[in-house]
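User: Hi! Is it possible to get a structure for several chains at once, not just one? Here's what I have:
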Amino acid sequence: MKARVLVRPKAGILDPQGAVVERALPALGFQGVSDVRIGRLIELEVADPARLPEMCERLLANPLIEDYEVLLDGDSP
Amino acid sequence: MKARVLVRPKAGILDPQGAVVERALPALGFQGVSDVRIGRLIELEVADPARLPEMCERLLANPLIEDYEVLLDGDSP
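Assistant: Yes, the chains can be modeled jointly so their relative placement is included. Here is the combined structure:
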């Protein structure tokens, strides 16, 4: 089954990559952008989707500083 | 308006990060995982969502090796 995992920095955790993008956009002429947060998009084919949360805890995300969301084929984000 | 940009390696482009995860999962006891691809999830608040494709072309993605998908609040992935 196709699955998608969204990994994002937890609220309150510094996101330096997002901060850089937020500063760079106005310099390129794009105004009115705020709250930029950058995370990871992991797409995979998995035989047993029930084990995805465990995979996230152990490898795909760092649960200390990141939240993850598992979407199975057909879920809305 | 809240927007979400999904950036993923183009089909056929090597994804070393995905390859590493795919090799690591069985070593941790997770079988049956394949086609792991790792991209970026960019979430932002934007005043003019019509300019998002241009932002992707110029800063958020590398159009040579990455595809991007823009989702506005309420879109399905």
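DSSP finds two helices and three strands in chain A. The first strand of chain A starts at residue 2 and ends at 9.

User: Great, thank you!
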